[in-house]
Amino acid sequence: LPEPDIGSCVDIDPVRSETTRRSLLASLAGTGTLVLGTHFPPPTAGHVDGTPAGGYRLTPVPGSGPTARG
Question: What pTM does this model have?
Fold first, then answer.
């Protein structure tokens, strides 16, 4: 999230992939919409917020990170 310009080897069309990432993140930032990033390391659930540098971050919701198992 911090750098939506960084792609992946599975991005068949890197330019369109970056445009899509930026558009999606911009539409979610600051809305309070719950995002579930299933391919993210924990925490995987949170809200997208913009950063002063123009990137994005995921603000985790409680309980979405690793849990202690007994």
Answer: 0.79
